[in-house]
Amino acid sequence: MRLAELSTETGVSVATLKYYLREGLLHAGRAMSRTQAEYDETHVDRVRLVRALSEVGGLSLATIEQVLEVITEPGTDRLHVLEVAQRTLARASRTVGSDEGASVRRVRAWIEQHGWEIDPQDPFIDDLARAWEACDHAALGLDEERMDRYADHVEGIAEVDVSTVPADPEAAVRHVVLGTLLVDPVLVALRRLAQQHVSRGLQGAAARGTGTATDDADGMVSS
Amino acid sequence: MRLAELSTETGVSVATLKYYLREGLLHAGRAMSRTQAEYDETHVDRVRLVRALSEVGGLSLATIEQVLEVITEPGTDRLHVLEVAQRTLARASRTVGSDEGASVRRVRAWIEQHGWEIDPQDPFIDDLARAWEACDHAALGLDEERMDRYADHVEGIAEVDVSTVPADPEAAVRHVVLGTLLVDPVLVALRRLAQQHVSRGLQGAAARGTGTATDDADGMVSS
DNA sequence: TGACTTTGGATAGTAGACCTCTCCAAACTG
DNA sequence: CAGTTTGGAGAGGTCTACTATCCAAAGTCA
C-alpha cells in the first residue's frame, strides 16, 4: 500500500507518518521507485503501536523509540528477558533525579519486612520512594500497613502478568514490555471503576441500614 | 517568609514561583508593601503539592489548576463528594475523543457480567475501552477472563482506598482526588517490583530444577 | 544620608516536544 | 501530454513549562 493508504488505514496524517519515518519510529517502505514506496501490515501494526504507546500509555516519542528498539531487537538471551525488559521500562519511566535519602531507605526496609525478594538497586525502588513521599506530603495516611495491603493485591496482579508471558524469549520481551506499559492504563481505569462500585456498595448498605430518604444522607464515601 | 525563602524551602526557583503565581497555581502572599509579600506554610504545602502532581503524577499544569480548584473549593455538598471527585479525575485523565464503538459496548457488557454496579455513562468506561483496545492491537491476549482476574485484585485495592477516606466531606474530596492521583504511581511502581519478585520466585524454582550457570555478559543495553 | 542590594511584578524570550506546511521533481493517470 | 499524486526534505508553527530581563519601590548598611 502507498503512504496515503497507510494514512487512511491508521487515521494518522501523511505528514505525521513522514515525520515518524524521519524520526525512525516507522521503518521505511519497500522503495518501488524514487517517488513510490510500498507499505504493508507491519507498518500498520507499527503505527498503531506507536499511537497506543503515545496516547494510551502517555510515553514520549523518544521513549517509544527506545522501547521499539528493544522489542524488535532479535538477539535476546533467554536468561535476561526480564532484566532487559525491566531496564527498558526503567528508562521508559520519567526518572528525574536520584534521591538516595531516607525515603529510599524506608522503601528498602519495607520491602524486606514485606518479604519481597528484589534487587536493592532496582530502579523502581526510587520511583516508589518518590511516589510514597509525595503521598506523605499530601497527608494521605499511606503507612506501612496500608502499603502491605496494597502490595498483597498488586502481587496478585503481578502473578497474572507473569503467568501470561509466552515461553519464546523474543515474544517474552515484547510481551513483558508492552504488557506492562499498556496494561497500566487498564488497571488505572479499573481502579476508578472499582472505587465507584465499592463506594456504591457502601452507600447502598448505609441506605438500607439507616433508611434515609434522598435528603441529607451522609454515608456517601465515608467509611 | 519572603519569596526567596519559599524558593529555598521548596527547591523551586523564584522565577518558577513567580510563574505559578501568575498562572494562579499558587495563591498570592500577604502584601506587606508594594514590593514585599509574606508567604507561609500554606504556600509551602501548595508548591509541594503542585510539584508532586506534576512530577510524580505526570499531570499538566492546566490539569493541576483544575484539581486545585476542586479540592480547595469550600462548598461541597456532602451528597456529591465522590461525584465531584470523579468528575475532576475524569477531566484530569487525558480524554481525547469519544469512541462510542464496539470496544465501549464490550466494556459495558463485561462490567455487567462481572457484577459491578457502575453508571453506564461513567467517563472511565471510555478510558478502559481505549486501553483494552490498545492491548488487543498489541496482541497481548487480554481477554475477559484475564480482565476478571485483574478486576478482582483491583477491587481489593479499591476497598483499601474507600476504607481510608475521612468522614468530613471537604477532606474527603481532597483525599479521594489526591489519593487517586498520587497513589496511582505507587501502585505502578509496586507492580514492577511485584513482577520482579514473582518471576524471581519462578526463576529460583526453575534454577533449582536445572542448575544453570551464568556468565557471558548481558548482550546489550548498558548506558 | 546616600550608595547598594533585594524585592515583587510585568514582559519577553527560550528550549523541547510534536507535529504541519511548503516545495520539489519524478512518476503515475487519463 | 496536461494534470495530479507521490515520497522526501527542510522550514515553520504551536503548545507547555519555564527562564531571563527590566523596573521602580523598599530595605540595608556605612
From TrEMBL, chains A, B:
Q: Which SMART domains match?
A: HTH_MERR
Keyword list, A-Z = DNA-binding
**A Pfam family for this UniProt protein?**
MerR_1
Q: Where is this region: Disordered?
A: 202-223
Q: Which GO terms describe its molecular function?
A: DNA binding; DNA-binding transcription factor activity
Q: Which domain of life is it from?
A: Bacteria
Chain intervals with Low complexity compositional bias:
204-214
Domain (HTH merR-type): residue spans on this chain: 1-70
The name under which this protein is listed is: MerR family transcriptional regulator
The source organism is: Knoellia flava
